[in-house]
Write a structure and sequence with these properties.
Elements (H helix, E strand, L loop, with lengths): L3 H15 L4 H22 L2 H7 L9 H36 L5 H5 L2 H21 L13 H28 L2 H20 L4 E2 L9 E4 L4 E6 L1 H8 L6 E3 L6 E2 L4 E5 L5 H10 E4 L9 H15 L6 H18 L5 E5 L5 E4 L5 H15 L4 H17 L6 H18 L3 H22 L2
Length: 436
Amino acid sequence: MNNTKPIYAIKKVYMQVTNSIAFYPFLITICLLAFAWGTLYLDRISVGGYLINKVTFLKIDNADTARNLLSALLTGLISLVTFSFSMVMIVLTQIMSSFSPRLLPDLVSKRGNQIVMGIIVGTICYIVVVLSSVQTIPSGPKVPLLSVFLSMLLGIVSLFTFIYFIHKISNEVQIGNILNSIYRKTSNVLNREMHADSYHEDWKEEEDFYPVKAWDSGYFNTITKQDFIKQARKYGLKLRVLKEQGMYVLKGDPFLEINKPLNDDIKEILKQNIVLRHQELVKDNFLYGFKHLTEIAVKALSPAVNDPGTAINAIDYLSDLFRRLQQLRGQKVEKYDDGTACIIYKPVPFEQTLYICLSSIRAYSTEDVAVQARLIDLISKIGERDEQNRHRQLLQRELNSIEEASAKDMKSEEDIRHIKAMVKEARKEQSYHEYR
């Protein structure tokens, strides 16, 4: 078996292509090109003319009129493509400068924008093919009646999709919609994880495991579960992942553990199904959602942007997501059909994720009473759900850090007293839940 690199490369290319902004435009354009040749064939065998003759007011049988009409449509649609491309570039540039460049992969992979671009570009290709066929169809009509009519129809559809595109792109650039989109994607992935019944708090494996070092450098993105289970079943292979999804893996670092001695066949299975790449898509790893919301909050609190309202919205979304994340306890285990373990993931790093998010936002908000108050509220809500006091020490340390930083950086004594009162109330609530 010596096809590891081609298969792995194909999987990476497939994931990159399907998340590319050009994926759906390419598919739609190919379909419309095939459709153009199909309708021209119908016109050549006079089926198209027969259909159009049934509706005479749609009939354009003058070659000059058809050519002028198609030329005007073609010119206008090319202008639409130019304008649309400019709009996309402006939006992406604004997002990178105002929010976070790591939001781009999720934004460019949205199907709505891709479908609009595909329809317009595909219509242009369709009209080019039809225009080149006016008075050139051998043993057929001088004007392909059905194809000309469909060109007009596709041109009108392209205008409506362009209006939809303008509406959609103007909404997507609004920070409220960006935050809501990230929240919903992350929430959906968390809900899927919670209902998958894959997390086990007391999972143990008695077998001996053998270490496997990383064969390449990159961000651990995902494991192609179905393909891996299918290939690993005949070896009875169990895989324990030592890194969280989204972590950067250096070549030669301890990365995995397996229950069988590593040989060429097993090594090939691992390389084929464990994907290392550099895009951060929330649908692949919900922890990216926490990271993106935190980065938006930090960017909003920077002096260049100075938008604490956006930071507060991001904290509100994080508050709900962290309460969901609390429910994912233990290790995630993917199983074979017989119930035995196949892939054992590293436990979700709740405390580490919470600390990184809160400390990043806290560092930029120590002078803002509203943001600090919302952080305290987030900690209180997490404490309410912490029924077994798993995170009590971390939450206490976070409250202490907020109190200390506020006392140091806030200039108003009234603001300092307000924050201290909120911290005191939060500690009291935690103590109540602890001894309840």
